[in-house]
User: Fold this.
Amino acid sequence: MKTIDITAQDTASLFNKLKAEIGGTVEVKLKEYILRFNNSLGKGMVRGMQIPNNITFLQVDAKFYENLSFNVESPKNAIINFLYCNEGNLSYSFGPNKSKTELKTFQTGISTNINSSENTIYFSKDNRVESVLISVNTIGKEKLDCSINKTLKEAFIDNKTEDFLYLSSYNLKITNHIKQLNAIEQEGVVRTLLIEGLVNTVLALEVEQHKLDCKNSESAIGNLTQYELKQIKELTNYINEHPETNFGVNECCAKIGLSPAKVQDGFKSMHGKTLNEYIRYVRVKKSEELIKNTDLNISEIVYTLGLSSRSYFSRIFKDTYNCTPSKYKKHQKLAAIA
Assistant:
């Protein structure tokens, strides 16, 4: 197994170390660092960024061709780590000689070092993994002046006498926000602000999941297996890519081999909507893009989205944007002229 020891105190040093160990090239976009590699060790990407309130964001999306571990130095009673596995599985321990805990797809692991001073993350050979690590540093008065850091310290560090590790129940909402992170195309300050906002949202969802799990012995999606959650994710992607398809609940269920009850539970958990509500949401979002970016008229947009009623489309569009499609299109033309 290849082990990479990480003691870097800042993002630039961290990525210099990763480049020396893994290879590849590093791109810097304001505060964001991106390492891309495709060599004998593996293929993929690591990106990271320091955001306000002493929060560090690190994302790994890679397949390694040999077993590999990151051994990260971490001060005691200081840093809270939120590690989410969006694809594949990985393992975690408080140092290379401690027992491992497996983190499965859609799970969050929350850890703090109380007695130990190392964290080790293990990546298995030929196993594609996408994970997001959000680390909150609570050391020093200036950190504790931030109410977020102070609250998290009280919850996950104070009064702890042993290393703390928590594994969440499955959470599909987080994977949806990571997809948004991956889809950011903007550059410059706008890109930085979007990343910061989404990282804070993911952190909030992870803290919320911990609270829910503590409150309930079974989470809201505890009756869905990991396989069923993956099927819900697959159906979501299909709807996003083919909004023009006339989806029926039974057809959707048959497509992924799940019962209507399971599908509805999954969509409510991931999107806060029923299946039909989500389909309407995707179509309205797509229609807004078509109005802004094409010369199609409203009737053509209705046809493109697989709808048969223009009046129905106008109603669901107005429910979302508080404006009819025709007025929205007119405003877009005026804005373009201005």
